[in-house]
Structures are given as structure tokens and as C-alpha cells.
Design brief:
Strand content: 25-35%
Shape: globular
CATH topology: Jelly Rolls
Keywords: Dioxygenase, Iron, Metal-binding, Oxidoreductase
InterPro entries: CDO_1, RmlC-like_jellyroll, RmlC_Cupin_sf
Oligomer: single chain
CATH architecture: Sandwich
Structural class: alpha+beta
Organism: Actinomadura fibrosa
CATH superfamily: Jelly Rolls
Protein name: Cysteine dioxygenase family protein
Order of helices and strands: HHEEEEEEEEEHEE
Number of helices: 3
GO molecular function: dioxygenase activity
Helix content: 10-25%
Length: 190
């Protein structure tokens, strides 16, 4: 993630932060927390107006991030990401639960599982998340890559179950392994 300035508070963001705070305070397991935070994001989607204009600047194939909020106790962080056409992450998994909502455009997510012997990735499907879609997940089993395969920019908001400013990244591990075909499917997950 590149840009880490914190956004100024807005009513939209304050409502979302309060709803996420309440979901996290339930102190349930990671999967249950991700589900509750996804519900909070669906109920309180933020406006694109709270994002800096330069979030969508950049060359084809690049992306920029902008920190919107870090909870004082370190229990969660919110980051907006602007994806230029052709932008793609490396295949990775996460250190904690994550929820994301697409605020503009379409964000594609390629899902993978690790082979039993750990020497390859197996394609598990592709999800096209359109504007308004919200999805969440928790380790283990969260191996994926994210990309913008469209002709225009995309914007997504990510909520992670940790203080990213403190640990530096949501990524636990990158996977530079051969990829084997699997039963690809196109769906929206929750």
C-alpha cells in the first residue's frame, strides 16, 4: 500500500466506524466478525466524496491506497484503494479477517487453494465484485489476488482486523507457486 494519509472524519465515515466498532466489540471469532463487519458496510456504505481526488490518479496497472481510519485500540483499520485498469496484486493471504466493499467499478478476485503437498496453487474460482458488492473472509483459506480487469478505474474500501499502521501490511504471505486449473466459477460471495 502506498499512500497512508488519514482522511478527515465525515458523517458517512463516522457512521461506518461506529457500526464496525460495534461489530468488532461482539468479540466473536474471525469469520463471525467478518460477517458482522460486512453487514455494517452494507448498511453504512461511505460516499466517494470522502476520498481524496488523487486516489484515482496513476498509470494503467497501478493502484493507490489511502488510510481512512485506524481504531485507537488497534482492533481494525479502514483503507480505500483506487485501482487503475490492469492493476493486479500478487497472490497472497492475510494476517487477519478482511471485509471489502466496491464503491465504484468492478473488482475481480481470483481465489486459490494450496495443493496438499504445498507446491502449487489450485484455482478455486473467480468473483466479479461490482459497485455495491460487499464480501468478507478470514484465514485460513483466504488465498487470492485482486485485479481490475475493466476499462475504467475501480474503488474499494477494505476493513482489516488490525492496525495496519503498526504492522505495515495486511499480507501474511505471498505465493509465488505454479497455478493449476480448477473448477472456475463466477459468483459473488458474502
Amino acid at each position: 500500500m502506498r499512500n497512508t494519509l488519514t482522511a478527515r472524519p465525515t458523517t458517512d465515515l463516522d457512521e461506518l466506524v461506529g457500526a464496525v466498532r460495534a461489530a468488532v466489540a461482539r468479540n466473536t471469532g474471525w469469520r463471525e466478525t467478518a460477517s458482522a463487519v460486512a453487514d455494517a458496510l452494507r448498511t453504512h456504505p461511505p460516499s466517494l466524496d470522502l476520498l481524496p481526488a488523487d486516489l484515482l490518479a496513476g498509470e494503467r496497472g497501478t493502484y493507490r491506497s489511502h488510510r481512512l481510519h485506524v481504531e485507537p485500540d488497534g482492533s481494525f483499520s479502514m483503507v480505500a484503494i483506487g485501482w487503475q485498469p490492469g492493476a493486479v496484486t500478487r497472490v497472497h493471504d492475510h494476517v487477519t479477517w478482511c471485509v471489502f466493499g466496491v464503491l465504484a467499478g468492478v473488482e475481480h478476485e481470483d481465489l486459490y487453494t494450496l495443493s496438499e503437498d504445498g507446491t502449487a496453487l489450485i484455482e478455486a474460482g473467480t468473483t466479479a465484485n461490482a459497485t455495491g458488492d460487499v464480501s468478507g473472509f478470514a484465514p485460513p483459506g483466504d488465498v487470492h489476488r485482486v485485479r481490475n480487469a475493466g476499462d475504467g478505474p475501480a474503488v474499494s474500501l477494505h476493513v482489516y482486523g488490525t492496525d495496519l499502521g503498526r504492522i505495515g501490511s495486511s499480507v501474511r504471505r505471498y505465493y509465488d507457486l505454479p497455478i493449476r486449473g480448477g473448477e472456475a466459477r463466477e459468483e459473488n460471495s458474502a
